[in-house]
Amino acid sequence: MKFLNRLYIDGFILSIAAVAILGSLFPVSGTGQTVLDWATKIAIGLLFLLYGARLSPTEALHGLKHWRLHSVVLASTFVLFPLIGLALRILAPTVISDELYTGVLYLCLVPSTVQSSIAFTSIARGNVAGAIVSASLSNLLGVFITPLLVILLMSTTGQATVDPSSVIDIVLQLLVPFMVGQLIRPLVIDWLMRYAEPTKFVDRGSILLVVFSAFSVSMADDVWSTVTAIEIVAVVAVCVFILAAVLGITAFAGAKLGFSLPDRTVIIFCGSKKSLATGLPMASVLFAGQPIGLIVLPLMIFHQIQLIVCAAIAQRIAKRADPEAIAS
Fold this sequence. Notes:
Layout: H1 2-6, H2 11-25, H3 31-54, H4 57-63, H5 67-87, H6 98-107, H7 115-123, H8 128-157, H9 166-194, H10 196-220, H11 229-256, H12 261-271, H13 276-286, H14 292-320
């Protein structure tokens, strides 16, 4: 367990892997699949309701005073990443399959993480307040921007059949629960803070259900027979390349734009992350009826790589007690 902690691999990540294996080994069908589909939809709605209830719009608006910092982070998340994803189109279908490339492009469109971005910024002695606002703002805007980017950019690749009709599902399953959460926030926020641990079970349980459903459907549709071990290795290499490129560019941009060292840690750690917690539920809505298991696989791989690499970087900076190490 100490070894896993050093690699920043927690029990939840292992649970995701275990559920993915279970979904592949024991796929459901018929009535069971129908029940699973409805349970997944309900879980996703509840998940985004909790997201809306937890996010304080007042704090987010107050933090916008540091607009230059947040603009750079958002540009990395929703401009730099998508451009890299589009450029990697040259890899399909020779290096990776079209479905896996769809997943690579999709991971480039989801918002940043919240918890790990803040945690790594804190470890590296950066601007924690700035990280809180940047990460939260990314998730808030991502509820709107990610589906829009998927609809606009996926059609240019010809890999995914996402069209404007998906807006109805997005509104019903994602935006409506999120807005309801914002509306009831004054009534439930104290309860959510008091019972934070039980609500984490709802969060993580919803994500695990989405993963099980995605891999169950993929196995039932026999999509894994089209994936080779070489392609999986290629996806890992692509994820490493994307993360390395973004880390290098954000470090360079933070220095060139004249940000303070604490703010540069925010740009690097918030600007290089992609959220598994938000990305998986969105994928199940946006790519309904498609090989979701393959589509979310690059995001799952990237998520673990980013945790390991960024944990190592943050710990290195903390030991040196010198944020200048970010650029080294």
